[in-house]
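--- STAGE predict ---
source: upstream dedup step, 1 unique chain passed
mode: sequence only
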Amino acid sequence: MNKRDHQILQIAIPSIVSNITVPLLGMIDVAIVGHMGSAVYIGAVAVGSMIFNLVYWLFGFLRMGSSGLTSQALGRRDMAEVVRLLVSSVAIALGIALLFIVLQTPMKWLMFWFIGPTADVAPFASTYFDIVIWGAPAMLGLYSLSGWFIGMQNTRIPMFISIMQNIVNILASLTLVYGFGLKIEGVAMGTVIAQYAGFIVAVVLLMRYYGRLSRYFQRKRLFRHIGVFFKVNRDIFLRTLCLVAVNLFFTSAGARSGAVILSVNTVLMQLYLFFSYFMDGFAYAGEALGGKTFGARNTIALRETLQRLWMWASIVTGVYTLVYIFGGEWLVRLLTDEPQVREAAHAFIWWAWLIPAAGVMAFIWDGVFVGITATRGMLVSSFVAALLFFSTYYVLCGFIGNHALWLAQVVYLVTRGVVQTVWFRRLGILSL
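--- STAGE serialize ---
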């Protein structure tokens, strides 16, 4: 294993661990309310979690924008810019969070109108929302801090925070629900406590390991190049809208085909998510190392980084493809014991075999493009891919049904990767 492989794995492995722990926050809440004696509590948490997952996903640019710009500044050894990016990105995140809190009533109305919870679930979902919205400063602030840590080539701190948050969430929620007799309020408060615990620990670790950088802080530089920051984040935000539109449509199209097909799609999509947890780790490595070598104008190191990233990505893709071909049916049985769903999944399982190879380019290029802040390429690729996704589905859904939805998903993933490959080559970065 050469130096570049070591650097990639040093960033990728903690990121993979972090990714695996992320779904646990929602699963813990569902597990607790699942023993409260009424299905409305499960529905309330499901609706509330969906709202905040969607909102926070849209504002994921706070992490990605911070990561790419910070890694480039680090590559240039411009520590004043590194500090400026930290302060300005956290300030912007807290400003957006404050706006969420001020506008929480119309925001809740809009999201409830969009999701449409049933009359028995809505009051409990409203209670959950009213409490969890107060965790917005911690969540968005942590997005900016996590992006900055990744830009500084440090994914161990985000990993530690993710694990710690899950532990705090379990302890706080169990204590509030079973110790103090709270129900949906206890689960919501446990989530907020975990969010602020993560944010506070992140600030403490920031001061512990990077406090010495405070001497580079220059107040007059605080909002210098802020236009670049917003340009990068605007492209990422619009790109995320494309991703959200595709993912929401994928779910709604499956739902229109009936409960069995919806369940099949949901189960098979878990196989895609399992793959994404690993590939995102290497995408983060692309962000950190790609941005640093690009910022240093070291094209030799950037080329070597890309070569090793593609090598690791090919290995992971090959392993997942073999696992899904030979163990896909077993994984479906592990995820559901419903006979109808298992039987129906048999006709669609082979689409899961194609997902790793279809999606690998998009994952790696997303990371690299964030690192080199080629965010316009991310936006264009996602927009073109989304157009092809909807076109493929509507042209073929009347002929091949749910297979058209999965074909559209494969076309969407491949298109993103192909367009970004062409875009990167047109940038001519490796020939500089």
